[in-house]
């Protein structure tokens, strides 16, 4: 079975797939047998929220996700019917439940890499049947987090430009003349970096931004396209200059200093027609805004909200127009300073409670803390168990005390669902989570430029892959750490197949 098809048509977790596998498989079989086998492409593209649109006489009502899963099995069924006729299609489908249950047991009792142990079943399958069953199951199990849809897009709006990075032994004093130890010129900008990261992880992002028709602008577009970011919705100005940033990386203190030159002329909403906006949003699963280009971003956010597409906002600092964007957000990833400044709360943890109370639409807020990891407050729509409220500051300290300083890889510590109180602010139902950062050996730490962008790119992937927060936070921290091992925001960004990510994707 081709895992590309599976990942393109299903979004969910493996256990949910396997729990409903018999229903899905039988649906695919009857749907094909009672329908036009050549129509499945139309079905894939045009199907809306799933209803009982088959001719199998079943009064079923499947969810949107189940609808995609059923259509996947329709494709899988067609593949079987056309490619496995030599073994008898009916024999295959008559045993579909047995095949998948057998394959599931076979893989779960093995190592998922082909070295399988006995499943203790008293069945007698041919070698060909075992191959179908185990291959199908392995690819299902592996692709849940490794692949995300080619038919869903992620739309971003924000900064994209050129970074000129010079590494120096130590930051110069006034009137000093020094030499760089290395130099790199590459694409930059928060949105450009984050979506490059997301594309390398397997997403299919589109970016709305603006550059000039100059050498730098051409380089920005070419580099993004080479990484799989769709730039067809960029505005290219015939005059002016593309955005650029000079970055001095201090090898001694492991810090960087940025000198930014904005693009000119700035982007205005009229440069993005309504038809282009609707085209950009077509098929979008998630929209990401980095807080720049605020007028255009607001137009996009309002249309996105009307379509009930979730929005993630990168909240680095207070910017013009940000107060209009935040109420439309489903998710926010913040710098360590922003929550305190925006809410005037006495601590980061209490500021998170304040943000969830002030932004009733938001599902979670993450605060990134550099080498100290991150903190996340997740809202729950479920009622917390009948217990006393937990003070958010005390809860955060209790989670921090659970950290194991001997563990170098990123980990996560989560509170149970509870009522979380911030004194003088209010109470929310939810969970508090603490994520640790990778302990990077000093010789391996090269440049922290773009670490936050990499973190956000990984969060975008995690949301689309339906990762639980306990997986998402360590995964995003690992991706960010990988990017810190090379000069520049993009040089060290990992691809989905990077061995360092394997443990977080299974």
What does this structure look like?
With 506 residues, the protein is an alpha/beta fold. It has 2 domains: 3-146, no CATH class; 153-505, UDP-N-acetylmuramoyl-L-alanine:D-glutamate ligase (3-Layer(aba) Sandwich), CATH 3.40.1190. It has helices at residues 3-9, 14-19, 21-33, 40-46, 64-83, 89-94, 96-108, 127-146, 190-201, 215-226, 274-281, 294-306, 322-325, 338-343, 348-358, 392-400, 451-464, 469-483, 502-505, and strands spanning 153-157, 161-168, 182-188, 205-208, 210-212, 235-237, 244-250, 255-261, 284-289, 311-315, 331-334, 364-368, 374-379, 390-391, 412-414, 418-422, 426-435. Strands 1, 4, 9, 10, 11, 12, 13, 14, 15, 16 and 17 form an 11-stranded mixed β-sheet that branches. A 4-stranded mixed β-sheet has the order 3-2-7-8. Helix 1 packs antiparallel against helix 5 (64-83), helix 3 packs antiparallel against helix 7 and helix 17 (451-464) runs antiparallel to helix 18. The longest helix is centred in the first third of the chain and has 20 residues, at 64-83. The protein is globular and about 60 Å long. The chain starts with a helix and ends with a helix. Mean pLDDT is 79; it is low at 1-72, 78-90, 106-122 and 138-151.
